[in-house]
């Protein structure tokens, strides 16, 4: 069976209002709390930790833990519960000196993929959910390994794959300035290249044009604002560098499959909604 090292049981998107709490409890399965926005105070195995955006807490099997939102903002989390079937993998995770991780934004992407698999329940959704979970756990192990050998470095341990230096420069600029009006010809010239050469590099390395990359990046940013903020669709369009709301709506619908407002409604319907991957798992808390 594919993904036999782990078993995903449950995943949910939660909004904890100021003052909300989870009392002390434990369960046989493992759990990951990933912080999307806000800040929460967690207790795990007697250790108190404060977690903010893009940080996560790994809770081991039968480990007593609790949480409280003592801040003034909504605490938004993605929570996943799972079993580890492979004894070697379980031993590696249990031996980790740290239970708090940060800087692993790929984990959020993988968690959202698990959530979508559980919601759609397409063929092989359990197996694909397990694959995404394995990626998450391996990222945690990799960060721990690198931290052990380079404790004096504060680099992001998710090293980017090697790219053409031209693409790398342009991508860096697009990600830093996506909210501004960008003219590719002027951008290429400012970096010492021609527009046609930049386009050739993108086609060769990324199989898309710089404009297509920018559109995709802007839409991913828009999805974050749409789901995790209360800005209007028009405000969000302007925040990602698109001044024409009609153009933004057409672009969003073409790339996502739904209009921005409808996508927000559909995604928010899943808040505090348990999504079960395992047919037999009953979530105790």
Automatic annotation (TrEMBL):
UniProt keyword Metal-binding, yes or no: no
Domain HTH araC/xylS-type: 168-266
Presence of keyword Transcription: yes
GO molecular function, one term: sequence-specific DNA binding
Entries under SUPFAM superfamilies matching the protein: Homeodomain-like (SSF46689), RmlC-like cupins (SSF51182)
Matching PROSITE patterns: HTH_ARAC_FAMILY_1 (PS00041), HTH_ARAC_FAMILY_2 (PS01124)
Transmembrane regions: none
Swiss-Prot/TrEMBL keywords: DNA-binding, Transcription, Transcription regulation
Record protein name field: AraC family transcriptional regulator
Organism: Hydrogenispora ethanolica
């Amino acid at each position: 069976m594919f993904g036999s090292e782990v078993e995903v049981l449950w995943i949910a998107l939660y909004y904890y209002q100021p003052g909300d709490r989870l009392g002390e409890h434990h369960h046989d399965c493992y759990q990951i709390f990933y912080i999307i926005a806000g800040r929460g105070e967690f207790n795990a195995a007697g250790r108190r930790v404060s977690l903010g955006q893009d940080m996560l807490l790994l809770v081991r099997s039968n480990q007593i833990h609790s949480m409280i939102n003592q801040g003034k903002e909504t605490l938004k989390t993605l929570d996943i519960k799972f079993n580890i079937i492979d004894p070697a993998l379980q031993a590696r995770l249990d031996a980790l000196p740290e239970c708090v991780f940060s800087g692993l934004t790929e984990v959020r992407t993988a968690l959202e993929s698990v959530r979508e698999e559980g919601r759609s329940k397409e063929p092989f959704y359990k197996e694909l959910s397990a694959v995404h979970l394995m990626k998450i756990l391996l990222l945690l192990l990799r960060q721990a390994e690198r931290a052990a050998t380079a404790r004096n470095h504060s680099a992001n341990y998710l090293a980017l794959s090697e790219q053409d230096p031209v693409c790398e420069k342009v991508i860096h600029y697009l990600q830093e300035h996506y909210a501004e009006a960008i003219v590719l010809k002027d951008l290429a010239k400012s970096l010492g290249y021609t527009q046609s050469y930049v386009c050739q590099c993108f086609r060769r390395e990324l199989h898309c044009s710089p404009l297509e990359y920018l559109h995709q990046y802007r839409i991913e940013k828009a999805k974050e604002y749409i789901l995790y903020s209360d800005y209007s669709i028009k405000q969000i369009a302007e925040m990602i560098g698109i001044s024409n709301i009609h153009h933004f709506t057409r672009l969003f619908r073409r790339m996502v499959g739904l209009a921005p407002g409808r996508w927000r409604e559909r995604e928010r319907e899943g808040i505090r909604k348990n999504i079960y991957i395992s047919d037999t798992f009953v979530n105790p808390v």
